[in-house]
Amino acid sequence: MLDSKLLRKETKEVISNLKRRGFEFDETLWTKLESKRKDLQGTTENQQAKLNELSKNIGIAKQNSEDTKDLEKMASELTATLKEQSNELDCLLEQIDNFVLSIPNLIDHDVPDGKDETSNLELRKIGSPRVFEFPIKDHLEIGRSYEIDMEAGVKLTGSRFKVFRNDIAHLQRALINFMIDTHVQEHGYEEVYVPYIVNKDSLIGTGQLPKFEEDLFKIDKQNDFYLTSTAEVPVTNLFRDEILNSEKLPIKYVCHTPCFRSEAGSYGKDTKGIMRLHQFEKVELVQAVESSDSDEALEELTEHAENILKKLELPYRVVSLCSGDIGFSAAKTYDLEVWIPSQEVYREISSCSNFRAFQARRMKARWKNNSDNKIELLNTLNGSGLALSRTILAILENYQESDGSVTIPDVLRNYLGKESILLPQ
């Protein structure tokens, strides 16, 4: 959520920044709402001052045994008027809040300009794509042999659900343990386990609501319960309505959860196999830091996600998302894209984002600076470390062999208990 004071004082600068995203700020509506707020707040404050003066005069009159009937009548009428104006002001402030909630975050100055993903800036490539000396298969062709069962997913639920069996189910479990162990033991994260169901306030806090409700699975209208679309939501909301002491920062959480997305508007895009599903697994990294540490934290978190790809020896690249491709709540985002041999292209496997104070302002997530006792907003960051289905996809394709087997990356062999997956006899 943007700072309302910033909107009032630096409206032109905010509009200019939002235009880089392609977001059209309704300046006419904002001016109208703000003008009405100023007038109504000014009138309300004047009326309250008059009521305070009347109350004071009534008290003095009673002390002097004077008749207060007329004064009390005026006070009663003024109280009724003030109540009406206060109710009107509350409704107006709610309108303003809803307007501000619909505005995306301001993007950092070094975010590249562009309309879509074609303008994303490649920062680096790590590893070289393998040269195969035999006809390669895509992950779905390989997976059918090793129990990626899309048909069972359709039978149990519907399209874009899957069932993993045997070696593939075991591979996912091995990856989860490997990723969490790495982030806890090497990167200093604290593991947390959170609910898969979140309330409306949690989704507003991280920016999924109100704008992206159609992408969510709502399961209980009475309680406003939703299936979580990403572990970012429940984990980041652990900071909601909290004031953390400075010595506790930075806080780094790692969490494994399933994620549920309706993927509204994505029909026909990446829908083959397990690239884009309604239910998938992720290991998520979340950090809360002081604003002065925010830039460094994004670089660090990105390196932590990259480390998983390096250990798995999967070729990948890092891109900085352009102004037209960056997410609603993010100020800056790095995408990690892994090499997919069957498509001969790099595809996203993690997004690492700095939200600065945008989420914290929505969540009232703050920290206390012990040097001056000042209360400040946290800066929040998150990234996948990594998405499980896409990691499985990348391993199957990059490690496939001519005899139909799939070699297991060295770092997973102790977790999986084998060096390769063989075709069933």
Give a description of the structure.
The chain is α+β, with helices and mostly antiparallel strands. It folds into two domains: 26-101; 117-421, Bira Bifunctional Protein, Domain 2 (BirA Bifunctional Protein, domain 2, 2-Layer Sandwich), CATH 3.30.930. It is built from 13 helices and 18 strands. The protein has helices spanning 4-9, 11-21, 27-63, 69-101, 139-145, 150-156, 166-185, 200-206, 232-236, 294-312, 358-363, 388-398, 413-416, and strands spanning 121-126, 148-149, 163-164, 190-191, 197-199, 217-220, 225-227, 243-245, 251-260, 279-289, 316-320, 332-340, 345-356, 366-369, 374-377, 379-387, 406-407, 420-421. An eight-stranded mixed sheet has the order 1-11-12-13-16-10-9-4. α3 runs antiparallel to α4 (69-101), α5 crosses α12 and α7 (166-185) packs across α12 (388-398). The longest helix is centred in the first third of the chain and has 37 residues, at 27-63. The protein is elongated, with a radius of gyration of 27 Å. The termini are far apart. The model has no long low-confidence stretch (mean pLDDT 94).
